[in-house]
Design brief:
alpha/beta; Rossmann fold; 7-stranded mixed β-sheet; 8 helices; 28% strand; globular; lyase; glutamine amidotransferase; glutaminase; EC 3.5.1.2; PdxT/SNO
């Protein structure tokens, strides 16, 4: 069975391209009746409010919640993380529906606006141990959320240092002069977790040439024991390597 990618809005094409590089078939999911035909689901990054409105329009939320409750693997990236969270704060007026199931509290747009998007090296000991490659991952954060609290059954896979803003400067002129200067880290916030059949990342692995997060998710699919899962994992492990520094790009990616 194919890996489903929710294709309402956002970076679903980039996820499909990453799966293709691993030799795995992906299926675009836009309707509830398509969900039973896939072994797992990726909810991509995008504009979470827009995605929620489209999901409501297509009456997808009940089917998505049932999919999670069935124990099928689900991975949410950025907006997808917000969808999976049991609780989200910092939402737009009126809020939005959530799928839920992931025992955590997420802050929408925790890192700021589009102008505050950034890339950074994350330490990923578990992913590197299981998938090989370097001990860090170049993560792309775009209007990204962050996880503020997690429940006892949630495994933290990566965190990042938050940064103090320039708002503490005494004058508007000082703020303008200092806003682009380095500032000291304040505290660590969680940006990647796993709980049972759910994986969630606040960043966008699909926008890089490093496919280790995708191969990690595919092993979650295989471990569920769905019919055809062994074929998926054997194709991944039979490639030239789960981490290949040579880019094989179907779409533009960050290096």
């Amino acid at each position: 069975m194919a890996v489903g990618v929710l294709a309402l809005q956002g970076s679903f094409n980039e996820h499909i391209a990453a799966l293709k590089r691993l030799g795995v078939t992906a299926m675009e999911i836009r309707k509830a009746e398509q969900l039973p035909t896939v072994s797992s689901l990726i909810i991509p990054g995008g504009e979470s409010t827009t995605m929620a409105k489209l999901a409501e329009f297509h009456n997808l939320f009940p089917a998505l919640r049932d999919f999670v409750k069935m124990g099928k693997p689900v991975w949410g990236t950025c907006a997808g993380l917000i969808f999976l969270a049991d609780k989200a704060i910092g939402q737009k007026s009126g809020g939005q529906q959530l799928i839920g199931g992931l025992d955590c509290t997420v802050h929408r747009n925790f890192f700021g606006s589009q102008l505050q998007s950034f890339e950074t090296e994350l330490e990923i000991p578990k992913i590197a141990n299981e998938e090989g490659g370097p001990p860090t991952f170049r993560a792309v954060f775009i209007r990204a959320p962050a996880i503020l609290e997690v429940g006892p059954d949630v495994e933290v896979l990566a965190d990042v240092l938050t940064m103090k803003t320039a708002a503490s400067h005494s004058s508007t002129q000082d703020q303008q002069q200092m806003k682009h200067e380095p500032v000291e880290p304040e505290e660590r916030v969680i940006v990647a977790v796993k709980q049972g059949n759910m994986l969630a990342t606040a960043f966008h692995p699909e926008l890089t040439a490093d496919t280790r997060w995708h191969s990690y998710f595919l092993k979650m699919v295989a471990n569920v024991g769905e019919e055809g899962s062994s074929k998926i994992i054997s194709r991944v492990e039979g490639s030239t390597g789960l981490y290949d520094p040579r880019p094989r790009m179907d779409l533009p990616v960050f290096q």
